[in-house]
Each structure stands twice: as structure tokens, then as C-alpha cells.
Amino acid sequence: MADFSLLMAGFSDVFTLYNMLFILCGVVLGQIVGAIPGLSIIMALAIAVPLTYGLDTLAAISFLISVNKGGTVGGAVPSILLNVPGTPESAATAMDGYPMAKKGKPMKAMKYALYHSVLGDLSSDIVLILLAAPLAVVALKMGPIEITALMILAFTVISGLVGDSLIKGLIAASMGFLLATVGLDPGMATPRFTFGLLELYDGVPLTAVSIGSLAMSGVLLGLLNLRKPDKEQHSAVSIKGGSREDNTVTFAEFWANRYVALRAFIIGTIIGAIPGLGSTTAGFLSYSVNKQAAKDPEAFGTGDPRGIAASETANSAVVGANLIPLLTLGIPGNIAAALLVSAFIIHGIQPGPLLFEEQGRLIYGMFGAMLVANFCNLGVGQFCMRFWAMVVSAPGTIIYPAAMLLCFAGAYVITGATFGIFVMVSAALFGYVMRTFGYSIVAFIVAFLLTPQLENSVLKARLITDDNPWELLNHPVALVLIAISVASMIYLGPRKKKPLDAEMPTPTGQ
Amino acid sequence: MINADRLQGVIVLGFGCALLLWLVPAHVTSVPGDPLDPSLFPKVAGWIIATLGLLLVVFARSDSAVPARQEVFGILCFITALVVAALFLPVLGFLPVACGLMIASLLLLRERRPIWAALTLVGVPFFVWFLFVVLLGRPLS
To answer: Cα–Cα distance between B40 and B31 in angstroms, integer?
Structure first.
């Protein structure tokens, strides 16, 4: 069990001016980026990773987590004011947020979103704090054979759950798998696919690949949309005017949605803990479940605060819960967690169950930072919502070139040479092709990230079993995990899958 | 007209075969039978990619989208601008290259509003330079 003094020491580490400043900066940056339609939290995280190179580990991780948390709050602003989700996670919020704003209560809708987002996020962080250490103890009992089986399961589930097609998901994962083999091999230290380039001996830089495939490819698509002559113009609902009652949410109004928030929190936390699913799914699923559970479902979609509460609580509850597989098993549950892994790796830390033993103080510090970031999110959101309402109208002709230049500079900083930029540009082109043809970038990045660990586990497993496959019969946990992998491949198999979102109502005008 | 998914399947299958027949034998040391064989994972990747390519050919969907020619041209323009900027970065330094990249972006986006254009051209490069070099102490060239 967790050492209480270690826990307190970790928590107290957060309360330095230096760390608090980075938490605040992260929250502000996340809320701004979330509020700009077209920029996503993932883009912000990918661009933010190189900014953390010179920082202390705790400050770096706190900053990135704060960006992620801020983004979930900021993303609701354009959903409510423009009916255009700032981030995919906030798409369900638009269904009731925008009608409420149109009724003359935009500030009230944004405050409903803020309070429920912080509530969902805080609750799921508490679940993470309570569950992660005990689960990590269980995970530590697993040997290389079980870990290999677990990795195979993670590959299959993530490839099947993200995107519309299991085959394309697996192709994306295989490409990540292949790319991760570039560099010196872990067994004999001979070069693989280095083509005589010394820069490739350490492998392809993960951060440059992340910036290119996640951020730059999205920026390029955004730039292309700006070039389209017939692009749709959205005008924001004005936040000026409105009575005091229209601009505030009383405790009674907030408390009235407690059962909706509870259901949404449970859905968000469960979905967050399953690798491959994400905030968008949680938001829509929670909206749908709460609508079905309501006595007056017809009120949903007309500016009902329960719709905002359902979506925002659930999509924010994913943020904490998606760190459960990362901290206990070393498997990033979604792309935000994968980017956190890259930050961990930059600072010489390998995520997984050993983290609690080797870096306990840092992890408890990170938990403390998560809790502090929630309150920062609330404070910054409370005071800055009006400013973010202006940010939604910022022109793309300045936003996208700025994001492009940040990616360019970030990629240079990673390697200290133009090599990082060339990797980033190649990854951007590859990411664009993947996005265009429906291949999952999430599966690609997660596979790229997990393969070195998988290769090490396979190597150890082969040495332990002396290459005798029948040895597997002595490892029932591994057998069960492989059976689940096969079952999930059959269940998620090559069929025309109806996307979850297609079954959900969509915001007006979307 | 060729189905886009089927065409992608053929390309993926071809890439998998190229891996197995040329890239792995030529660029990875192979020690067959050794548990530490460095070519194991690349070979596994080759087989998986080739098999999945074949499966994509068989299970191709009929409704997969294809990007417009103009979109592809736009992407290539931005990629070219980035590559040229990267090539000139060690020679000219960050600020001139960043301003050049911003000019290219503004031209490609056909921005005509002078204030926004000026902000993008001057403000953005200085902001990024200030952030990395001054605030974070990371050299940019």
C-alpha cells in the first residue's frame, strides 16, 4: 500500500510557486486552445511536449496535465456559442448548450459546462488516486509472458475500437509497430532500417512523430479548409446583456442535476479506464443514457441544462480515468495519455506498475497537481469565460500559421537539428494520408509507443520458455488474455461497423 | 473506377512484400533461430502488413472517400514550404525563415486583411522565438 509520508511529500511538492505557475499556464493555454474551433487538445499537447524539455519532471507533467484539463473546459465554449465543437469531446455539449445560448443564456450555459466539467474531472481524479496504486501492485505480479499477452490484447482492442474498420486500425498499428523497430535492436544492438543515418540509431524521435501526425496533420487540414472558397461562416452568440439570473448558476440549479452528473461520471470513468475509447464516446453515450433515463426526454436538445451536465461531466471524467491503464500497466488509454508517456520518456521515466515503487513521490506529486489543476480550471474558467468567448472568433489565418510555426520550432528543439523537422514533416504527411483514408492515428501512435516494451517482453519470454510454445500452458493469465484478444478480433472483425456517434443525435447544424 | 480501399490494400500488400523481400534482408541483420534475432519483429511486421493488405483488398468498402486534386495540391504546397524552411534554417536562422514561412502561408491562404497579415508575418515569428529562446532558453538555430 501507499506510504502515507511519501504521499504527503508528493502532494506538498506541487505547492511551490514554480509548479503552481506551470499548472496555471497549462490551464490557461488549454482553455484558450479548447476555445478555438479547429484546434484540439491533442494538438495543444503535442505542441506543448517540446516546451517541457527544460523543465523539472513534475512541472513538465503538471503542465501537460493542466493543458489537457483546461482543454476540456475551453472546448465547451465554441460548442455553446457557435454550435461548432472546439474539441471533438465537446460535440455533445452543443446539443443543449447552443439552444440555451440562443435563448439568451450563453453565460449560464458556459457556467453549467464549467461546473460539471470540473466536477467530472475531479471525481475521476479521486478514483484514479484510489485505484492506481492497488492495481499497480497486482500488475507487478505479471511476468514477461503475461505482459506480452497484455500488449497483444492492448494492440487488438485499441485497433478495433478506434476508427471504423478493424483492418485499417490494425494496419495503422502495424505501421507504428514497424516504425518502432527503426534503430538499434534491444537484443544484439545491431542497426535496423537506419539507412546509414546516425540520427536513426536511437530510433525515430517519438515527439517529432507525435507533433507531425497529431498536430501538424490537423493544422494542414485546417489550413486547407481555410483555402476553400465556400467554407461555412459561423457567427457566435453574443454574451452581452442578459439578467443576473441568466448569467449565473445557483447551487440549487447545480444540485438539481446530481443524478445526471452521477450517471455521467460513472460512464466517463468506465470509458476512460478502457484503452481505445475516449471523451467523445463518453460524452455522447452519457447524453444518450441520461436522455433515456429522463422523464421528459423531449426536453433534451432544446437547451436543457441536463444535456450540458451529461456531456461535460462524462467527457471530463475520462481525463483522470484514462491514466489508470497507463500508471498500472504502462498502456496509454488514449492519445493524451500517449503524449504524457512521451513526456515521461523525455525525462527518463518509463510508465508502468514500477512507477509507484521507483517514482512514488513524483506520481503522488502528479496526483496533487491534477487536483490543483481542477481548482485552477474552475477559477480561470469562472473569470475568463468572457474572454474565451472572444477567442472563438479569432481568425484561422493567424491561428493555423502560428500553430504550424510552433510545430516547426518544437520539432527542431527535440533533436536540436533540422532532422527533427524532417521527421515531423514526414509524419505530418503520413498523418494526413491516415486521416483522409480513415486509418487511426491513435492506433499508430500507441503501437509505436508500446512496441519497444513488447519487444523486450517477447525477448525475455522467449529466453524464459526456451522457445517452447507449450510453456504458455503454465501461464493461465496469459492464456486468458490471448483468448480475450482473439474474441475481441472476432467481435470487432472486418465488418461494416456502425460508428457509435451515428446512433446519437447530432447538434443542430452539424 | 478502382475502389479506393482496394487500391490502398494493394499498396499495403506491396509494401509488406517489399519489406519481406527487400527491406528486411537488406537493412536488418538476421540471425535465424536465435531468440535475440534482430530481424524477428521487422519480419513479423512485414507478414502482418502484407496479410492485412490482402484482407483490405478482400473486404474493401465501397464508400471510402478520395481527396480532391486541389486539396492534394494544397497539402503539397504547405509541405514544400516546410521542407524549404527546414533546409534554410541552418543558413539563415530562425526569424528570417519563420517570416518566410508565414509569407508562404499568407499567400497560400490568400489573406488580404492588412492587420491580420501583419500580425501573422511579424507577431507570430517573434512570439514563437520569444517563447522558445527567451522564456524557455532553447536555441532555435
So the answer is: 9
CB A172 within 8 A of CB A163: yes
- Angle at which helices A106-139 and A360-391 cross, to 10°: 160
Of A223, A226, A418, the CB nearest to B89: A418
Is A184 in a helix, a strand, or coil?
strand
Secondary structure of residue B78 in the 3-state scheme: helix
Highest mean pLDDT: which of A29-38, B9-18, B127-136? B9-18
Same domain, B75 and B121: yes
- Structural domain containing residue B136: 68-141
- What residues contact residue A328 under an 8 Å CB cut-off, 6+ apart? A131, A132, A135, A136, A138, A139, A353
Q: How far is B2 from chain A (nearest CA, A)?
A: 15
**Nearest neighbour of B45 by CB, restricted to A181, A421, A422:** A181
Question: Mean pLDDT across chain A, nearest whole number?
Answer: 84
Same domain, B58 and B36: yes
- Kindly provide the b/e burial profile for residues A236-258, where b requires at least 16 CB atoms within 10 angstroms of the residue's own CB: bbebeeeeeeebebeeeebeebe
Determine contact: B25 vs chain A, CB below 8 A: no
Q: Which of A343, A345, A339, A350 is nearest to A445 (CA)?
A: A339
Q: For residue A453, which of A442, A461, A443 has the smallest C-alpha distance?
A: A461
Last residue of one domain, picked from the residues B66, B97, B116 = B66
Residue that is written with C-alpha cell 476508427 in the block: A163
- For residues B129 and B85, membership in a common domain is answered with yes
Q: Are residues B57 and B102 in the same domain?
A: no
Residue B114: Cβ-neighbour burial (10 angstroms; 0-12, 13-18, 19+): exposed
Q: Is A224 on the interface with B (CB under 8 A)?
A: yes
- B53–A contact, CB cutoff 8 A: yes
- Which of helix, strand or coil describes residue A322? coil
Half-sphere exposure of A454 (CA within 13 A, CB side): 24
Q: Which of B47, B66, B85 is the last residue of a domain?
A: B66
Q: What is the reported pLDDT for A502?
A: 40
| A218, A225, A425, B123 from B73: Cα distances, Å | 16, 13, 16, 28
Give ipTM to 2 decimals. 0.93
Of A50, A53, A398, the CB nearest to B119: A398
Inter-CA distances, A344 with A454, B22, B119, Å:
18, 36, 35
Domain shared by B89 and B112, yes or no:
yes
* CA gap A68, A66 in Å, rounded: 5
Q: Report the number of secondary-structure helices (H) and strands (E) in chain B.
A: 7, 0
Q: Do B131 and A51 touch (CB under 8 A)?
A: yes
Pair B15, B53 in one domain: yes
CB atoms B75 and A429 under 8 Å: yes
Best-predicted range by mean pLDDT (A143-157, A173-187, A210-224, A345-359) = A173-187
Closest CA to A219 of B75, B106, B98: B75
pLDDT at residue A346 greater than cutoff 50: yes
- Among chain A residues, the shortest Cα distance to B129 is held by A409
Contact B124 A193 (CB under 8 A): no
Q: How many domains, chain B?
A: 2
- Do B53 and B11 fall into the same domain? yes
Residue A334 vs residue B124, higher pLDDT: B124
What pTM was computed for the model?
Answer: 0.83
Q: State how far Cα A499 lies from the chain centre.
A: 19
